[in-house]
Design goal:
alpha/beta; Nitrilase/N-carbamoyl-D-aminoacid amidohydrolase; six-stranded mixed β-sheet; 14 strands; globular
């Protein structure tokens, strides 16, 4: 089973949902891929601050419009789960049906202040594996990938790929872009240890005083970067991800050996 996936590495305008929606629809209308993965908060921009309270209703309406035209898409939005309670979420659209997957780890350090605005997801209730034409995938959002458990949990629930919409700003600019090196190492390690495809779709361009660096990438279950987006500019990257690579990697790895007592020990350390 092979899935053609497009990483839509786009620049978005903060708070301008209708304008951002137009870009989403143009990409979906012209893609050659089976499924398109947009970045985190791709309908609103990331540096929203209190604009969050003014845009979340527009976002849900925009997601419904995307669902009318797309068979498979993952895009970043905001979901109100009860009056006044919002979540940073990924809208997963499959054959016109919409599901929202929330972010589980909310960064609140440096420029990040997500816990001020959002409620985190509950993995026991909200972690899901989706099936599209026989290909199983899960979705995590940005900071979730900086922790080992979410990707491992999705892999053990049956995911053959993990899509990661992200809003990663530029950091540690020197001879190389430090944040790019970190993400590359992280993504390759997740792929290799869990025998899954990792599809990382990052924002690009300026927002407020921050600049998002792009660099979207696809890593195989063997920990090899198979596709890579440009740095500092918009890009559309199409890659083929194959279940056979998942099978091959797990045949010849220690993935099958899972010592649950380590998780028990870690939970007791809290």
């Amino acid at each position: 089973m092979v899935l053609r996936v497009e990483l839509a590495q786009i620049e978005v305008k903060v708070g301008r949902v209708e304008e951002n929606l137009k870009k989403h629809l143009e990409i979906l209308e012209t893609t050659s891929a089976d499924c398109v993965v947009f970045p985190e908060l791709s309908l609103t921009g990331y540096i929203l601050k209190d604009l969050i309270y003014e845009t979340f209703k527009e976002v849900e309406e925009a997601v419904s419009r995307v669902a009318e035209t797309s068979r498979c898409a993952v895009l970043g939005g905001i979901k109100e789960i009860s009056p006044g309670i919002l979540r940073n979420s990924a809208a997963v659209i499959l054959n016109g049906q919409v599901n929202f997957v929330p972010k589980f780890y909310l960064p609140t350090y440096g420029l990040f202040e997500e816990r001020r605005y959002f409620q985190r997801g509950n993995p026991l209730r909200d972690l899901r594996v989706f099936d599209f034409n026989g290909f199983k995938f899960g979705v995590l959002i940005c900071e979730d990938a900086w922790h080992p458990e979410p990707v491992e949990a999705l892999a053990r629930l049956g995911a053959e790929a993990v899509f990661i919409p992200s809003a990663s700003p530029m950091r540690r600019l020197g001879k190389s872009l430090g944040i790019e090196d970190q993400w590359t190492s992280l993504i390759k390690a997740h792929s290799l240890m869990n025998g899954v495809w990792i599809v990382f779709s990052n924002l690009v361009g300026p927002q407020d005083e921050e600049f998002f660096w792009g660099g979207s990438m696809v890593s195989s279950p063997l920990g090899e970067i198979r596709a890579k987006g440009k740095i500092m500019e918009e890009d559309r990257v199409v890659a083929e991800i194959d279940v056979e690579d998942v099978r091959r990697s797990r045949f010849f790895s220690s993935y099958r050996d899972h010592v649950r007592e380590f998780h028990q020990l870690l939970s007791e350390l809290d």
